[in-house]
Amino acid sequence: MNMRFSLFIVLVFGSILGGCSKNEPLVSFQENDLYGYKDKNGRIKIQAQYQQAYDFNENGVGFSFGKEGWVCIDPENRILLHPFPFENGPDYFSEGLARFVEGNKFGFFDPSCKKVISASYDFAHSIQQGFAIVCNGCSLVKEEEHSRIQGGKYGLIDTTGKAVIPLEYDSISEVDPSSGTVQATQGKLKKEIKLP
């Protein structure tokens, strides 16, 4: 094989493979009581401006707390969404999804901060056993450190956002994993609903 041709092949494939490698996640740093982000070589990519910051994850997004509350940002410091604040941080992932808030409505996002279930509910519990209890017409009532949900109509959605139980019940229990059912109440009527 021709030496020039071999060198050309090596250079082409090397540049293709190099282009395919993922960027290294940014890491947070602190300066004057504020946090920003640097790359793996120590170059500042996002100036220190946040009160709290977590290192970027393997999906190339970071969670930070600043003037706008908790945000999920990309390496250009663009806000992708506002995660629901839970226990002094962004909401935890449960079964691959976490909650975000948009216009006072709740939805769900994945670890890339891609919105998977649109913000359509006044409140949403985290995903458990493949489902989330959601409500509309309900409100969060503050009680010291915590809040409780009051009023509204409840239903159940799956991890794609499909309504498995319509939002027409006064309450719905968590999924019973052994029977695959929930208990729902509507006025004085109680019923057990089998899930798909």
From TrEMBL:
| A UniProt-annotated Pfam family | WG_beta_rep
Which InterPro entries does the entry link to? WG_beta_rep
Protein name in UniProt: WG repeat-containing protein
